Structure formats: C-alpha cells, structure tokens
Automatic annotation (TrEMBL):
Annotated protein name in UniProt: Isocitrate/isopropylmalate family dehydrogenase
Domain of life: Bacteria
InterPro entries to which the protein is assigned, alphabetical: IsoCit/isopropylmalate_DH_CS (IPR019818), IsoPropMal-DH-like_dom (IPR024084)
Database matches in Pfam families: Iso_dh
Transmembrane annotation, as ranges: none
GO BP term (any one): isocitrate metabolic process
Sequence similarity: Belongs to the isocitrate and isopropylmalate dehydrogenases family.
Length: 346
C-alpha cells in the first residue's frame, strides 16, 4: 500500500483555487508514479472563511495544521490600510514559523535580464516591524515598534549557515541598516557574526540594505545567501524575483521547529481570477519544496524536472512569461512531461 501524506491545503482566493487545483493534480500524479499518496485537508481563510465561520482563520484550520504539521497555501487577499490582519503573518506567529526561505533560481529557456540566477533569501519571519506593535499616539501620529531579539537573530542566522553547510553554499551576506539602527540592527549583526564563527568554511560578509539593492541590480552574481531581518527580506525577495521572471515563478516556505507552511509569494490577482490565465509555477515550486521537506525527494525531483522541461521547450507557457497558454494547458503540459523518460533534476 502506498504511503499517504496528510497535507493541509488552503486554496486561497482570487486565482488561488485555480493554481492550487492545478498543483494538486500534478502532485498527485507525481506521487502515483513514485508510490506515495496524499490526503488533502482543505480549508478557506480570510474573507471567504469569515462568510461561513465568522472567523478569518477557522479553528479547524489551526487544528489541521497543528495535526498535519505541513500545509500548502495559495494566495489570500490582505486588505490594505484596514480590515483583517494578514493571514500569512498570523499563521507565522501562531506556529512560530521563524524562517522564511525563498530560493530564486532561473528556469531554463526563459529569457531574462540576468541568466543563471541562483540566490537564496533567508528572512527572519517573526520580529521587526512585522511584530505589528503599532498605535496612534495622538491623531495624525502613529508609532510602530521595531522588535529585534538575540534569540530571533541567532536562530535565523543558525538556519542560514546550517543550510549553507548542508547544501554546499559558499557565502552568506547579512543585510542590515546598522549605520542608522545601531541598537536593533547592531544586535542582529552581532548575532550573525557569532554564528558565522562556527562555520569557517562559509564566507561571511555584511551589506547595508540600500547598498544591497543597488549591488543586486548591478551584479546579482556576487550574492549566494542573503540573511535578513523581516522587512528587508520581504522587500529584497520581491526585487530578486524580477531577476528570474517575477513573483509568479518564485516559491516560498515558512519553517519552524514543529510545522511548515509552503506558499506562493504572489498576490491573489482578482483581476484575472476565473479566466484560466494564472501561472501555477510559484505554487508548484513551493510544493516541490514541501515534498523535499517531507522526505519525498524522488517525487519532488520528478515534478521539477518536468516543469523545467516545459519551460525549456517554451511551447505551453502562460501569458505572464510570454506564452499564450492558460493555467489548465500549462498544467497538462507538466503532466505530459512527467510521463516522459526523465533525468533526475539536481
């Protein structure tokens, strides 16, 4: 009997149901070919969940993630300047998903300004301004508190260097603004330096965040792993996604000691929802990260190899990357590629 993995699935809203539907179909086909199965526990979140449960994150969803310890999440709309809190941030806090892991790697056959990009952003996921500690002091004056702790900074630094050692990455840059934020970012740097001493085989450097933006645009190849606080990492990960074709291609993982949530980093794009136009690549590559996380690398490699083959051929791509195909046609092309003899992707 095939081994079955229980996965909490949050399809999301906007284009979420379309891309998550395509990804589930591909993951199940890859699993069937490699002898594993999946049991998906589906839950809504955000405005859609509130309509039926009066909760933006239903208790049943919390319970499912706590039980399964792994979730795959499509995009969920977050209101701007009001409304309910970010579902992403709330889930990260709830399950202490302290590491945001965002690999940025070029896909074959896709022409971009910078070929052969291979960067990783390791972003602290719990602190900084995203702690959400803000209040109105007097009308017209709002105060927001930046929270940086030794525990959080050491923990994310350890994660970055552990990953570098395990995967033979050569360099870690700590990204900061310690020239201005001398106490908070200074603490972050002291923790990173201390951890770096335990990994002499990994080169360590520090760049100020505004200079990093310029350096990335001038020469992204000088970087390998970027170790960042929460806000800087959020901004830099979007910047770096442009090197490989945009947010529609880049995966993301939120990792903690007990649970992990894998998600596409793009928005819900309500303007194209239901039009069979969305690119499922970001969520599919997030699912690949998820499969590696649950020790199903053969299934993960099968999907990644097929995905890269579709991009290499360039015949069935979605409009955002210069093609003319829709979501369903793209997913079918990946499924067809999986049926062909494969050379395992590295």
């Amino acid at each position: 009997m095939a081994k079955t993995h229980k996965i909490t699935l949050i399809p999301g809203d906007g284009i979420g149901p379309e891309v998550s539907g395509a990804v589930v179909k591909i993951v199940e086909a890859a699993g069937a070919a490699t002898g594993i199965g999946f049991e998906w526990h589906r839950y809504a979140a955000g405005a859609e969940a509130f309509e039926t449960t009066r909760e933006y994150i239903p208790k049943a969803l919390y319970d499912s993630i706590e039980e399964n310890r792994v979730a795959l999440k499509g995009p969920v709309t977050t209101p701007i300047g009001g409304g309910f809190a970010s579902i992403n941030v709330t889930l990260r806090k709830k399950f202490e998903l302290f590491a945001n892991f965002r690999p940025v790697k070029s896909l074959p056959g896709l022409k971009t300004r910078y070929p052969d990009i291979d960067l990783i952003i390791v972003r602290e996921n719990m602190e900084d301004l995203y702690a959400g500690l803000e209040h109105e002091v007097v009308p017209g004056v709002v105060q927001a508190l930046k929270i940086i702790t030794e525990k959080g900074s050491t923990r994310i630094s350890q994660f970055a260097f552990d990953y570098a050692r395990k995967h033979n990455r050569k360099k870690v840059h700590a990204i900061h603004k310690a020239n201005i934020m001398k106490l908070s970012d200074g603490l972050f740097l002291r923790c990173a330096r201390k951890v770096a001493e335990e990994f002499p085989e990994v080169a360590y450097a520090e760049h100020i965040v505004d200079n990093t933006c310029m350096q990335l645009v001038m020469n992204p190849y000088q970087y390998d792993i970027l170790l960042t606080e929460n806000l800087y990492g959020d901004i830099l990960s979007d910047l770096c996604s442009a090197f490989v074709g945009g947010l529609g291609l880049v995966p993301g993982a939120n990792l903690g000691k007990e649970c992990a949530i894998f998600e596409a980093v793009h928005g819900s794009a309500p303007d194209i929802a239901g039009k069979d136009m969305a690119n499922p690549t970001a969520l599919l590559q997030s699912a690949v990260l998820m499969l590696h996380h649950i020790d199903e690398s053969a299934t993960a490699n099968r999907i990644q190899t097929a995905l890269e083959q579709v991009y290499r051929e360039g015949k069935t791509l979605t409009k955002d990357v210069g093609g003319t195909s829709g979501t369903k046609a793209f997913a079918d092309a990946v499924l067809q590629a999986m049926e062909m003899p494969q050379t395992v992707s590295a």
